[in-house]
User: Which sequence fits this backbone?
């Protein structure tokens, strides 16, 4: 009888450890019920993103700073590659000029999150710690962008939970030879929501 109790307790502990481990690995904040979200309002519709501050605290803080400053208002998705990703958050929709940003942040790509379809990650140059305001949403699983696959990778810090159809519509717009949409895909506003 004692061995059944011990086995039951061991199984329960393993189940709990597995649950807590998966929740932490995926950035799931169900355990502490503090899921942070933002709404991206575009001229193609709305996209709701769930943020993962437990996995990428510096990146989420940086992104939220730009959101709170209304930096993203009237910017564009300026780089669109069908079957890859849509990138935005750096160019003014009226002037077409790149906006002034804060200092770059430290890369947090080794955080357990993958560049899978629907995830949002920070764009950067070839320099590792160069991300500022620009971000991209993966439209497919982009394993080669993950930490350690070919280089330091790109820091995933959230995931689309509503509006993936909007992301897909944007990913199909006609573009020029430099992957810039022929007509502006405007980010009207990004705001933090509950």
Assistant:
């Amino acid at each position: 009888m004692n061995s059944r109790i011990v086995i039951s307790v061991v199984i329960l502990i393993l189940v709990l450890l597995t649950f807590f481990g998966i929740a932490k690995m995926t950035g799931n904040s169900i355990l502490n019920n503090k899921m942070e979200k933002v709404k991206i309002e575009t001229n193609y519709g709305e996209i709701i993103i769930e943020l993962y501050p437990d996995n990428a605290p510096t990146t989420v803080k940086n992104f939220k700073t730009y959101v709170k400053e209304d930096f993203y208002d009237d910017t564009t998705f300026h780089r669109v590659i069908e079957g890859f990703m849509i990138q935005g958050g750096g160019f003014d929709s009226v002037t077409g000029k790149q906006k002034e940003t804060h200092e770059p942040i430290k890369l947090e790509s080794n955080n357990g999150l993958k560049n899978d379809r629907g995830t949002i990650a920070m764009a950067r140059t070839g320099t590792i710690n160069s991300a500022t305001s620009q971000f991209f949403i993966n439209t497919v699983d982009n394993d080669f962008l993950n930490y350690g696959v070919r280089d330091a990778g790109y820091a995933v810090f959230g995931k689309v939970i509503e509006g993936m159809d909007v992301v897909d519509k944007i990913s199909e717009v006609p573009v020029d030879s430099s992957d810039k949409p022929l007509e502006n895909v405007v980010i009207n506003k990004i705001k933090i929501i509950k």
Notes: The chain has two domains: 1-33, 35-193. The mean pLDDT is 90. The beta strands are 36-42, 45-51, 75-81, 85-92, 119-122, 135-138, 156-162, 186-193. The chain is about 25% helix and 25% strand.
